[in-house]
Every structure is written in structure tokens, then in C-alpha cells.
Amino acid sequence: MRIARSLALAACLVAAPTLSQAADLLFTPESLQTSGWIVTVKGNVRVGPSYPGSDEFSFIGYPSLSFRRAGTVERFSAPDDGLSFSFLDESVFRIGVVGRFQGGRYLQDNRELFGLQKVDWAVEPGVFVEYWPIDFLRARAEVRRGFNGHEGFVADFGLDAVQRFGAVTLSIGPRLALGDSEFTRTYFGVTPVEAALNGQVTPYRPSGGITSVGATGAISYDWSPQWSTTAFVTYKHLVGDAADSPIVKRFGSEHQVGFGLTVSYSFGYTP
């Protein structure tokens, strides 16, 4: 099902130039530089671990949307940022709300998970803070709370060095992730009953703390004022109680690698 959804999204991306020609008849960004809004529509395709700690990959495709005032410069956004909206937006400082989606862990992801409780997908609303100490360096922090799949608190911290060379923008930087005990026990814990049913893992009750360290790198290319493409790779190394989980050691991997591609189309709009 995940592959089918990704193929459907890919078809939409292929059709995007034709759709954009129709949009261009209604919206001309160059003529709306001092009034109205610039709307950016994105198609995103990502490949990553099927669940936290997994050594198998799954595909996901989804759209996203952002707005900015006409005449303002588009802000840098790392590909692993949560979907965010700022209510305080200064030249070097931003604060606002953010949200992320966390996929679930199901038996069909790995038959060796038999006996372990399934974990449904989760949404993680929260807040973010972003600061540019110098013009090519961005620091960002997100704190979020999970609902549905897990009920814990998580936080992500990142630093990005950003450089632009004509139509090309390069970014790279370290990452640090934390989770409380509710989060780690959901994805990395094993109850005595689960251990008895599975037969390949032992009971394990992890504590909260640092769950991973890693890095994210991306390259973007502006094909025109309207079209751009971004490719990226992410790496997380599970540490602490997350890395010591028998689920990770027996069925998964401490090394969490992800890849992705985003195609963006921007147009002007005046209500």
C-alpha cells in the first residue's frame, strides 16, 4: 500500500508541469512582488526505516503547502524540519507551532515482531524556535507531544550550515534527538508478556534521554523562479537505552538512514 501511494504521488509530480501551465494563466509571480502572497506547493517522497529502530525501509509520499508575503525572501527550511507556522518572524529569530507524523510499527513490517504490541501511527504537535547567529548558520529546536501511537514528549535539535551558489543551495549539519520514558518504552520497550510470546527477546524497560545523534545534508536547485528540486539524506545513530533495546539488537539496526526528494512549485496569489 505504501508503494502504491508513492507511485500515485510520483504520477502527480510528473503531471505537475501541465497543471502549472494552467495555474500560470491565473497567477503570475513576477507581477505580484509587492502585494499578495507567494504560495509554494510541494510534493514529497521519502524512504526511511519502517519504524524507529527498524533495519527495513518503507516509502511515503505526501503534499505540503507554505505561504509568504510577496516581495519577501523565501526562508531556508531543512528537509527534516517539521511542518511549521511562525507567529513571531524576525530577521534572525522565529518562533511558532510545528507538527510531525510518526509512522507505526506493525507485524507486517517484520514477521519477527510476533507477540510485540503494535504501535499505531502518531501525530506530534508542538512548538519550535529558530535562530540565525550568523547569516549562513541556523540553529533550530522543536519540542513536541505525541498523540495516538505514543503519548510521550520528544525534542529535536539541529544546526545547519547553509551556502548558496547561484541556483544551487547546499546545507549540512548535526542532529540530536531526545525522548521521554513514555516514548522510549513505546518503541523500544518489551514487557514480560511480549517477551514470552515472542521468544526471541527479553523484557526491557528503557528510560528517557538522548535517543539518537546524526546529521542531515541536502542540495537544492532552482530551475526557475517557480520550480525547484531538493534531494537529501539523513542519518541517525541510536544511542543510550534506545540502542540497547532488544528490539533493535535482535530485529533492527542502530543505523537509521533516510533519503528523500521534494519538488516545489511557487505562484503568486492576491485574495
From TrEMBL:
Residues 1-22 form the signal peptide. Pfam families: MipA (PF06629). It comes from the Bacteria. Its main location: membrane. Keywords: Cell outer membrane, Membrane, Signal. GO terms for cellular component: cell outer membrane. It is found in: Cell outer membrane. PANTHER family: MLTA-INTERACTING PROTEIN-RELATED. Belongs to the MipA/OmpV family. This is Outer membrane scaffolding protein for murein synthesis (MipA/OmpV family). The lineage of its organism: Bacteria, Pseudomonadati, Pseudomonadota, Alphaproteobacteria, Hyphomicrobiales.
